[in-house]
Specification:
The protein is built from 34 helices and 17 strands. The protein is of the alpha+beta class. The chain is elongated, with a radius of gyration of 35 Å. 48% of the residues are buried.
């Protein structure tokens, strides 16, 4: 027998709460709050009272439809618990008690990190109770009331709740009272579903008891409100309501009273979330819409399906079904636009279609620059931390192969620059820029980011604020990168998706020390290199498993083997650099940097060509935008004689880091080895314009001028080198020789003076000077010394034009044989 609506006389099924036609309540619950479970216990326990001779009441936590929840102390196990007592008016109903116990058993069987643990269920003092874990934290409802949740934060909570629901549904348990007040979030950001299994007793005859309404009106599914048989999909609806509420701060179905809310649930579509908050992606809006389908068969059929869509979208992948929905929605909008427009308004229609079909930017963003973030910490000494955030964000985005990301060295040149964003974008040849601020108080870090389409004019595409504890900064960087990747609309590979889905917590002290080390390391002066090592070692004291710190120490030892640092010979530095890089890879094989370090060690110190190429390729697979890997792989290919490949790598590096004086100069190296001397001179000069005392570029100019027979220019470049290096006695010998016998004698006397300094690190330089002086045997003597010391630039002897004078000599050929250098391609003449 059905129930006749007293208002419209429509016949409703037995057990219905509301009329399915007009939404009038079939059993009233006057004065009820539409966001509270509609049955309230009438009695409460005083502080200090005891339940079951075991639980001491501390305070009341809240009241709901199925009883009152208290914080209590478990005297037996000495722990805080949440104690829920069944209301006295229900305890005497046999089927209620039976079902209460059965549902408590089902809830206790659930073991999942996103479900509040049930410890015990029993009867005492004339009532039934359940003892549950006491959760320190804040309900989602309280969070929403205190502040606006960011999109990523709302999605993360929804994902965790969906995981808990899927576990319960798999065990045959349906919650039936999912709402924001029933979801707690701990201080570490873990969501916990409360009261699991208890709301299931709202089925059957309880709905029809006089004056009694159960469930929570604003979160009820249409089938639940109509009194129909419900299943796990009612929980999916309720989670959709909670997600809508977290995203917008509003409930999807509102009204002045219970009846108007129910009418909205049964009859109306909620306002789209994107119209209430502009930074919500359309794909997220589609997820909410599907979860709130009034027909359960059109809704998500499993919580896991909803979870999969949210996870995919959060890492930049729009599920195919949602793509199809978006296309249909666009088509409907287009048809409406055409229907309302006349033939005379075709131009207007075209504009409307462009805006409708392509909200925001019409094409994917393929290139981006993360500008130096602004320091709002109020402490200039924290600049290293802010720069570190910029570096981390660049590093995360650089893992996306379809996105060209400008490297750190170039973007840092815009720090404090008084240039407009379009000017910067044109100079860097990028589609968009990321700008933002960093704020830090105590152990909390807050970062505000904006993605701006800057050409032909500035247009904000996306903005979001992130806040995390210091332990979670790496997780935050991954979230930021995922959000930006999503907004750029680039396609991610499976491997990239995986990398942008994982991050671990970090020891804040270790991370802070690492950032200080990186800040000093990038200055590349001997003093800063020493300071950087101390900070990297401090990071490892705080966390011996922190892989980036080992990579940092590896780079320290490689730097010490260069002429710039001049602190260690290659045979001393290489084993230490290799050891640290291997340790870093063992701890985290997903980092590009240690593979790059192993590649450089294998190239310049071990002369293991096969291993070097393998490591370079690994580094670039992990981080396609790692500019250092591109440029040094280019130098490796140059040494291998694969000159056209080398130039391609150099050009790619310069696309990523166009204002890097070293890259400009090293591109000159590959051009010089290709015997493209005029082009090489142009590149060397570009490097010198940015760094007037960069030795490698000035040395390259000297070699090119010599090869072109421009001996006066070569002499002047040599003089400049000796001045920068502070080698005044060598400079005097050069000038004296030039007066005595011209260019050739100048080179000979400079070689003698440099050899007198008895530094084995100078062997290649001395060999070069003797070669330019035409003294083959002495040049070969010093080349053999350079081979014994394994000096870095020995790897280029097959392709270096300056050794042409020695190339046919047996001793030179023997060196080539011992180094096992491949023949490579023919160079350009």
């Amino acid at each position: 027998m059905g129930i006749t609506c007293p208002k419209c006389r429509h016949e409703n099924p037995e057990g219905a709460l509301y009329c399915s036609k007009c939404a009038a309540p079939l059993k009233t619950a006057e004065g009820s709050d539409v966001t509270k479970t509609l049955l309230t216990a009438k009695e409460s326990l005083k502080k200090g009272s005891t339940v079951a001779e075991r639980y001491t009441i501390i305070e009341e936590l809240g009241r709901g439809g199925m009883g009152v929840v208290y914080k209590a102390e478990d005297a037996k196990l000495k722990r805080a618990v949440a104690l829920k007592l069944l209301p006295p008016e229900l305890i005497h109903i046999p089927e209620v008690n039976e079902r209460f116990m059965r549902e408590a058993q089902a809830a206790a069987a659930l073991d999942h990190p996103n479900i509040c643990t049930v410890y015990e269920f029993d009867k005492a003092e004339g009532t039934s109770f359940i003892s549950m874990a006491y959760i320190e934290g804040q309900s989602v409802k309280k969070k929403i009331e205190s502040r606006n949740l960011e999109v990523d934060e709302a999605v993360e909570v929804a994902c965790q709740v969906a995981e808990g629901l899927q576990e319960a549904h798999d065990k045959g348990v349906v919650h039936r009272d999912i709402k924001s007040a029933n979801i707690m979030v701990t201080e570490r950001g873990q969501a916990k579903i409360m009261d699991f299994g208890l709301a299931r007793i709202t089925g059957g005859t309880l709905f029809t008891q006089e004056g009694t309404t159960m469930g929570t009106v604003a979160y009820m599914s249409p089938e639940q409100a109509r009194g129909e048989k419900v299943d796990h999909r009612t929980d999916i609806w309720s989670l959709g309501v909670v997600l809508y509420e977290m995203l917008t701060g509003q409930l999807p179905f509102k009204g002045e009273n219970e009846q108007s809310v129910m009418y909205a649930i049964l009859k109306e579509k909620p306002e789209p979330v994107s119209s209430l908050k502009t930074d919500i992606p359309v794909s997220i809006e589609q997820v909410v819409s599907k979860a709130l389908e009034k027909n359960p068969d059109k809704r998500y059929q499993q919580a896991g399906e909803l979870l999969d869509d949210l996870k995919s979208i959060s890492i930049g992948i729009v599920p195919e079904e949602i793509k199809a929905s978006l296309r249909k929605a666009k088509l409907r909008k287009r048809k409406r636009a055409i229907a309302y427009a006349g033939a005379a308004a075709l131009v207007i229609i075209a504009a409307v279609l462009a805006l409708t079909l392509f909200p925001g930017r019409a094409e994917a963003i393929s290139s981006i620059a993360v500008l130096p973030l602004e320091n709002l910490t109020g402490d200039a000494a924290r600049e290293y931390f802010v720069d570190g955030v910029t570096d981390e964000l660049i590093g995360q985005l650089s893992q996306i192969g379809a996105l060209r990301v400008i490297s750190r060295r170039t973007v840092m040149q815009y720090k404090g620059a008084e240039k407009s964003l379009p000017e910067i974008a044109r100079e860097l040849n990028v589609d968009a820029v990321v700008d933002g601020t960093v704020y830090q108080v105590g152990d909390r870090v807050r970062i505000r980011l904006e993605l701006i389409d800057v050409l032909p004019e500035e247009r904000n595409l996306w903005a979001q604020t992130y806040e995390r504890a210091g332990t979670d900064v790496l997780v935050m960087y991954v979230e930021m990168a995922r959000a930006i990747a999503r907004e750029t609309r680039v396609d991610l590979t499976t491997e990239e998706t995986t990398r942008l889905s994982s991050a671990r917590q970090v020891n804040p002290e270790a991370y802070d020390a690492y950032l200080k080390g990186s800040y000093h390391w990038k200055k590349l002066t001997p003093a800063d290199i020493d300071t950087a090592q101390r900070y990297f070692e401090l990071a490892l004291e705080k966390d011996p498993t922190y892989a980036p710190a080992y990579s940092g120490i590896s780079f320290i030892w490689m730097a010490r083997a260069t002429a710039t640092a001049a602190a260690a010979m290659p045979h001393q530095a290489a084993p230490k650099a290799r050891e640290m890089a291997i340790r870093s890879v063992e701890l985290d094989s997903t980092l590009a940097e240690p593979h790059f370090a192993l590649a450089t060690v294998a190239t310049w110190y071990e002369w293991d060509w096969e291993k070097a190429e393998q490591e370079f390729r690994l580094a670039l697979d992990l981080n396609p935008n790692h500019a250092d890997s591109h440029v040094f792989y280019g130098l490796f290919l140059t040494a291998m004689g694969r000159l056209s490949e080398a130039r391609a790598q150099m050009e790619q590096a310069l696309e990523l880091d166009p204002l890097n004086f070293m890259y400009l100069s090293y591109y000159g190296v590959s051009l010089e080895r290709s015997r493209m001397f005029d082009e090489a001179i142009v590149q060397y000069q570009k490097g010198i314009d940015l760094a007037p005392e960069f030795i490698d570029a000035i040395s390259g100019l000297m070699h090119c001028y010599h090869q072109k027979g421009m001996y006066q220019e070569a002499l002047e470049a040599a003089q400049r080198l000796f001045v920068i290096r502070g080698e005044h006695e060598v400079l005097q010998a050069l000038e004296r020789g030039n007066k005595d016998g011209g260019y050739v004698e100048a080179m000979r006397q400079a070689a003698v003076a440099l050899a007198a300094r008895s530094n084995p690190a100078y062997a290649l330089r001395i060999a070069t000077l003797y070669t330019f002086a035409g003294e083959k045997e002495r040049a070969l003597d010093w080349l053999e010394n350079a081979y014994e010391e394994r000096l870095q630039n020995m790897i280029y002897i097959r392709v270096y034009p300056k050794w042409d004078l020695l190339r046919d000599e047996p001793r030179f050929q023997e060196l080539l044989h011992k180094m096992n250098l491949p023949a490579g391609e023919k160079s350009k003449t």
